[in-house]
């Protein structure tokens, strides 16, 4: 399968941007086979995916530069994290960070997150994060936004009852889009009770490069939490 293949119905476009430096390319070749989640060998108990003993498992969809994923994994060594990132540059950064920090509670998946969600056991995730995803700003591309009725159903199936789905974006139309889709779903309840609940980053938030870019360009992020009912 070509790295430049575009996937019909997926939330991402090309997998490859600028050519990877030799060290990063080697990291993918050497480390990804060990850390990649094999869709054909997912255990009923997701905690068994990890080298370290973990009490629960969280999923981050589209981890980008891996700032949040690595921070969370390092801060919470007793929790297992699955990070999804099909873009090769971000994937290489995630692999490098796992190696540099010696993390044993991270697994990665380098393809469409919907494929992984469809194979995970029901009610197996303690949290799902979708942070500063590609907004696909042109109206004709909105169907490629990851938040959709179908994908919210996928997330709901994989989440434990009461577990959170967290969404962050600096694009107002995508925030409104997500609220509209989540609030019409029987599976989710928006937890905000006051403006600060969605205007301020969550406790322990380390920031991401995409958030920093938005701030530089004068945009403010929104931080939404939906509870699986």
Automatic annotation (TrEMBL):
The residues that the entry says bind substrate are 138, 170, 208-211
Q: Which reaction does it catalyse?
A: guanosine(46) in tRNA + S-adenosyl-L-methionine = N(7)-methylguanosine(46) in tRNA + S-adenosyl-L-homocysteine
Q: GO molecular-function annotation terms?
A: tRNA (guanine(46)-N7)-methyltransferase activity
Xref: Pfam families: Methyltransf_4
Record-listed S-adenosyl-L-methionine binding positions: 60, 85, 112, 134
Q: Which Gene3D superfamilies match?
A: Vaccinia Virus protein VP39
List, alphabetically, the GO terms of the cellular component aspect. tRNA methyltransferase complex
* This protein's record includes keyword tRNA processing: yes
Pathway(s) = tRNA modification; N(7)-methylguanine-tRNA biosynthesis
**The enzyme's E.C. designation:** 2.1.1.33
Report keywords, A-Z: Methyltransferase, S-adenosyl-L-methionine, Transferase, tRNA processing
Instruction: Outline what the protein does.
Output: Catalyzes the formation of N(7)-methylguanine at position 46 (m7G46) in tRNA.
Q: Which family does it belong to?
A: Belongs to the class I-like SAM-binding methyltransferase superfamily. TrmB family.
Which protein, by its recorded name, is this? Answer: tRNA (guanine-N(7)-)-methyltransferase
Taxonomic classification: Bacteria, Pseudomonadati, Pseudomonadota, Alphaproteobacteria, Hyphomicrobiales
């Amino acid at each position: 399968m070509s790295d430049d293949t575009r996937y019909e119905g997926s939330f991402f476009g090309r997998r490859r941007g600028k050519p990877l430096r030799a060290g990063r390319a080697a990291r993918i070749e050497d480390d990804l086979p060990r850390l990649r989640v094999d869709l054909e060998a997912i255990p009923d108990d997701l905690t068994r995916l990890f080298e370290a003993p973990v009490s629960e498992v969280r999923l981050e969809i589209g981890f980008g530069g891996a700032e949040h994923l690595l921070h969370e994994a390092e801060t919470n060594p007793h929790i297992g994290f699955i990070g999804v990132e099909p873009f090769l540059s971000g994937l290489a950064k995630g692999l490098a960070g796992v190696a540099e920090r010696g993390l044993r509670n991270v697994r990665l998946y380098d393809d469409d997150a919907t494929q992984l969600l469809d194979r995970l056991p029901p009610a197996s995730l303690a949290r799902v994060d979708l942070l500063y995803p590609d907004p696909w700003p042109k109206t004709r591309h909105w169907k490629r936004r990851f938040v959709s009725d179908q994908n919210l159903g996928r997330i709901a199936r994989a989440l434990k009852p009461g577990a959170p789905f967290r969404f962050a974006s600096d694009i107002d139309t995508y925030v409104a889009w997500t609220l509209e889709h989540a609030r019409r779903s029987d599976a989710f309840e928006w937890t905000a009770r006051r403006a600060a609940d969605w205007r301020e980053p969550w406790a322990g938030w380390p920031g991401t490069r995409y958030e920093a870019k938005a701030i530089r360009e004068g945009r403010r992020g929104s931080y939404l939490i939906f509870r699986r009912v």
